[in-house]
């Protein structure tokens, strides 16, 4: 049994005229102690998945079907009371843009202490000890717990949000775009810190990002999302060394530093599909350089190819597509 099992989950947002089909039949699982990546461009459904796992979907969001189990326990339809023992205690969260949403009028130490005391019946002194401990874990000076958010740089504020996520010693940390908006050197430091902590505490990490480079550096396994669908899934090295899905090929090429791929490789022009319609054919077909009529008729199921799962009707031509994707002139 995996620690987290997301199974065939469908999530829609109700809108006045039409529903938005944000997540469509997504499945993945995370083992204890593993680092798992969810990667995809803006609007692909990454944060929606994260929020569903935490029971924090927006009010108009609804899990239509599927199951989300944590440590064997079904999380969908958990009562708000039961959520309290799961959220932060077992699964904690570094929300997207967390570093910008710290309370400006409260010291960072008090914010973390408050989070601890909401869940644990401990004295202020004991909570303060834990605050100092998690400060040290994330590489912040415990003497600065009395400072306000504006007294920290962006990278340091992000360390504060990581410290907050660690405070109750969770088994799974979900980090939604934890390095976005930080400069590259700071990004690397944050990722190194997350990995160091993850190794030390033995917790699992679900890392959400649009940056293939970050996933490649950090995660053992990955799901590539597009239009609310898993396009490719498997071991990160395999998926980005030899992608078998045209979308992952394009996504990887957008981050040429990931490896030897050449830079004039295909990009993926165009924008996300209209999510107000339930997808029928392949969600990527309008942008896919290899799409055929068949792609408009049936959505390709995830099938295993070379050890990874890929949703494409033409995975048997993956080698050929990769060659062409590298050099669109041929
Ligand atoms: P980003 O990289 O920009 O954070 P994402 O992959 O996290 O994107 P989501 O935020 O999960 O994407 O959004 C998936 C889709 O659902 C998008 O089309 C988005 O506009 C839509 N969406 C998100 N929240 C709502 C909401 N509350 N109501 C309606 N639509 C929503
Ligand atoms: Mg998001």
Describe the structure.
With 330 residues, the protein is of the alpha/beta class. It has a domain at 244-326. Helix content is 32%, strand content 22%. It has eleven helices and twelve strands. The protein has helices spanning 46-53, 80-86, 108-119, 124-137, 154-166, 184-201, 212-218, 236-241, 246-253, 293-297, 318-326, and strands spanning 4-13, 20-30, 35-39, 61-70, 73-74, 91-94, 172-176, 204-209, 221-226, 229-235, 302-305, 308-311. Helix 9 (246-253) packs parallel to helix 11 (318-326). The chain is globular, with a radius of gyration of 21 Å. The chain starts with a strand and ends with a helix. Adenosine-5'-triphosphate binds at residues 13, 15, 20, 22, 40, 42-48, 58, 60-61, 96, 210, 275.
Task: Write the SSE topology.
Layout: E1 4-13, E2 20-30, E3 35-39, H1 46-53, E4 61-70, E5 73-74, H2 80-86, E6 91-94, H3 108-119, H4 124-137, H5 154-166, E7 172-176, H6 184-201, E8 204-209, H7 212-218, E9 221-226, E10 229-235, H8 236-241, H9 246-253, H10 293-297, E11 302-305, E12 308-311, H11 318-326
Parallel strand pairs: 3-8, 3-9, 6-7, 7-8
Antiparallel strand pairs: 1-2, 1-4, 4-5, 9-10, 10-12, 11-12
Helix pairs in contact: 3-4, 4-5, 5-6, 9-11
Bound molecules: adenosine-5'-triphosphate and magnesium ion.
Adenosine-5'-triphosphate binds next to strand 2 and helix 1.
Average residue pLDDT: 91
**In terms of structural class, how would the helical and strand content be classed?**
alpha/beta
**Biggest pleated-sheet summary:** 8 strands, mixed
**How many helical stretches?**
11
Order of helices and strands: EEEHEEHEHHHEHEHEEHHHEEH
Radius of gyration: 21 Å
Fraction of helical residues: 25-40%
CA-based shape: globular
Query: Separation of termini?
Result: 46 Å
Q: What ligands are attached or bound here?
A: adenosine-5'-triphosphate, magnesium ion
Number of strands: 12
Biggest sheet, strands in spatial order? 6-7-8-3-9-10-12-11
**Beta-strand content estimate:** 15-25%
Unreliably modeled segments: 260-266
């Amino acid at each position: 049994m995996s620690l987290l099992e997301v199974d065939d989950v469908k999530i829609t947002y109700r809108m006045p005229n039409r529903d938005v089909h944000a997540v469509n039949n997504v499945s993945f699982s995370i083992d204890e102690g593993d680092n798992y990546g969810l990667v995809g461009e803006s609007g692909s459904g990454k944060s929606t998945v994260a929020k569903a796992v935490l029971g924090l979907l927006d009010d108009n969001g609804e899990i239509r079907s599927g199951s989300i189990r944590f440590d064997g326990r079904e999380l969908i339809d958990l009562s708000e009371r039961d959520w309290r023992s799961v959220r932060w205690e077992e699964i904690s969260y570094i929300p997207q843009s967390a570093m910008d949403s710290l309370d400006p009028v409260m010291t960072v130490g008090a914010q973390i202490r408050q989070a601890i005391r909401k869940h644990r019946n401990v004295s202020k002194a004991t909570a303060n000890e834990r605050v100092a401990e998690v400060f040290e874990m994330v590489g912040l000076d415990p003497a600065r717990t009395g400072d306000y958010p504006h007294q920290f740089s962006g990278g340091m504020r992000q360390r504060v949000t990581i410290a907050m996520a660690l405070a109750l010693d969770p088994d799974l940390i979900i980090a939604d775009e934890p390095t976005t908006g930080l400069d590259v050197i700071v990004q690397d430091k944050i990722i190194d810190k997350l990995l160091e902590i993850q190794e030390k505490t033995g917790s699992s990490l679900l890392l959400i990002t649009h940056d293939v480079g970050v996933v490649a550096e950090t995660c053992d396994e990955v799901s590539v999302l597009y239009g609310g669908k898993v396009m490719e899934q498997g071991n990160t090295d395999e998926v980005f060394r030899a992608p078998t899905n045209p979308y992952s090929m394009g996504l990887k090429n957008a981050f040429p530093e990931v490896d030897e791929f050449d830079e004039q490789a295909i990009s993926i022009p165009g924008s996300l599909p209209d999510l107000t319609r339930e997808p029928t054919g392949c969600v990527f077909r309008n942008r896919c350089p290899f799409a055929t009529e068949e792609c408009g008729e049936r959505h390709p199921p995830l099938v295993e190819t070379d050890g990874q799962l890929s949703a494409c009707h033409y995975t048997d031509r993956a080698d050929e597509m990769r060659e062409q994707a590298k050099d669109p002139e041929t």
